[in-house]
Design goal:
Elements: E1 4-7, H1 11-23, E2 27-33, H2 40-44, E3 47-52, H3 63-73, E4 77-79, H4 89-97, E5 101-102, H5 107-114, H6 116-125, H7 141-151, E6 155-159, E7 168-171, H8 177-192, E8 197-201, E9 207-215, E10 221-233, E11 236-242, H9 249-265, E12 270-278, E13 284-290, H10 297-304, H11 308-316, E14 333-340, E15 342-343, E16 349-350, E17 353-354, E18 357-359, E19 366-370, E20 377-378, E21 385-393, H12 396-409, E22 411-413, H13 419-427, H14 429-433, H15 440-446
Parallel strand pairs: 1-2, 1-4, 2-3, 4-5
Antiparallel strand pairs: 6-7, 6-8, 9-10, 9-12, 10-11, 11-14, 12-13, 14-21, 15-16, 17-20, 18-22, 19-21
Helix pairs in contact: 4-5, 12-13
Length: 448
């Protein structure tokens, strides 16, 4: 097993990886920007190396600085967490070229799945249902019009190299297509350095269901059930739960087989997530594959008892999966609320600042993944998520009650948060019924 791992990330996910490494007896090295010298991950890791100023391009996205930190520290492997360089094939290759193990899939797999249009074609070849649309990147505006006329409006225009809700536009009418293509392409170029787009038929009011997979280097691939990520705002997930309220045993088996087939087709190894859209008739369609650990991975851990970070590290170290598909059982229900430093009353404006006082909820079935502490100053340079509140209970009804109680106990003074907003969601009758869809939160907020 590795003796020392460098964690190429910050905040909550860096702390999460440190904890897994500690339990495995692995020495940890973290990197930090100048703005993060007092962040929890920098305080509790065995070693910390400052790699640049606050700007992400000069620190957490600086591949050379991260690699140099790994080499100086004597780390044998690099865990990228999520975001930043986690789905960057060039970074994964750079790690390998410098004698470091990249804790994730191969650079080839990252490239193949990072191009959303190419990934869609691979899924079609594997027999995985895909959303009707372009067969690859759209060549020009004329082809965009032809595709939209063929599949019918509304359509979605999406960045081929995208993710995180960037470079996406909905088009309901032919008259709006040119403006949407221009805007999405410009945004794609700005965020991903690649202006290419692909198009899909818009599945109206779907469920967003993703399947967690693990794959070792010996061809063993399993899925760990689904997560329902349909509560989203501006294509960003707000609350996730597992099992999905719409799931049946038959549907889970069908989608699970498709997820495993998708991973096998791509020669995938390590942890990954296959994302699907499910329509009102329970037809499901491949949307994309995320080649990293997900923000919402804790709820899968809660219902399966499998530590996904430890599994990632073991797979990267060349170990076989210690369980088969038959060994995996889904027990109980788990919900995760993303706690952000933002003001929902002011269009969710970020709220950096110093945490004056803090009280974290506790009790049976309560888990908090976070890097905040009393006196910590949240910097203005990074994502506004400051904690993930996770509950686990025997039933969905009990999990909802537990989440209500935990949110009511969660106190953060000094900055604005979305805790009360999350509490309003947990009390919402539609959400409590499980009958919400991908557009429900957008519709709810537009009525205010």
């Amino acid at each position: 097993m590795f003796k020392k791992i460098l964690i190429a990330n910050r905040g909550e996910i860096a702390v999460r990886i440190i904890r897994a490494c500690r339990e495995m007896g692995i020495h940890t090295v973290t990197v930090c920007s100048a703005a993060d010298r007092h962040c929890l991950h920098a305080k509790i890791s065995d070693e910390t190396i400052c790699i640049g100023p606050p700007s992400v391009t000069e620190s957490y996205l600086n591949m050379d600085a991260v690699i140099e930190a790994a080499k100086i520290s004597g780390a044998e492997a690099v865990h990228p967490g999520f975001g930043f360089l986690s789905e960057n094939a060039d970074f994964a290759q750079k790690c390998i070229d410098n004698g470091l193990v990249f804790i994730g899939p191969t650079p080839r797999a990252i490239r193949a799945l990072g191009d959303k249009a190419a990934a869609k074609q691979s899924m079609k070849n594997a027999g995985v249902p895909v959303i009707p649309g372009s067969d690859g990147a759209v060549k020009d505006l004329y082809e965009a019009y032809e595709i939209a006329d063929r599949i019918g409006y509304p359509v979605m225009v999406k960045a081929a190299a995208g993710g995180g809700g960037k470079g996406i536009r909905r088009v309901d009418r032919k008259e709006d297509l040119e403006a949407a293509v221009t805007a999405a392409s410009a945004e794609a170029r700005s965020f991903f350095g690649d202006p290419s787009l692909y198009m899909e038929k818009l599945i109206v009011d779907p469920k967003h269901i993703e399947f967690q997979i693990l794959a070792d280097k010996f061809g063993n691939v399993v899925h760990l059930g689904e997560r329902d990520c349909s509560l989203q705002r501006r294509n960003q997930k707000v609350l996730e739960e597992t099992p999905s309220p719409i799931m049946t045993r038959t549907l889970r088996e069908r989608m699970g087989r498709a997820a495993v087939a998708a991973a096998i087709t791509c020669g995938y190894t390590n942890a990954g997530t296959i994302e699907f859209l499910v329509d009102s008739d329970r037809n499901f369609y491949f949307m994309e594959m995320n080649t990293r650990i997900q923000v919402e991975h804790p709820i899968t851990e809660e219902v399966t008892g499998i530590d996904l970070i430890k599994a990632q590290i073991s797979i990267a170290d060349g170990k076989r999966l210690s369980f088969t598909q038959e060994d995996i059982q889904i027990k109980g229900h788990s919900i995760e609320c993303r706690i952000n430093a933002e003001n929902p009353e002011l269009n969710f404006r970020p709220s950096p600042g110093t945490i004056q006082s803090l009280h974290l909820p506790g009790g049976p079935g309560i888990r908090i993944d976070s890097a905040i502490y009393q006196g910590y100053t949240i910097p203005p340079y990074y994502d506004s998520m400051i904690a993930k509140l996770i509950v686990h209970a025997a039933t969905r009804t009990e999990a909802l009650a537990k989440m209500k109680r935990a949110l009511a106990e969660f106190i953060v003074d000094g900055v604005d948060t979305n805790i009360d907003f999350q509490l309003s969601l947990i009390r919402d009758p539609v959400i409590c019924s499980g009958e919400y869809d991908n557009g429900y939160l957008t519709r709810k907020l537009s009525q205010k």
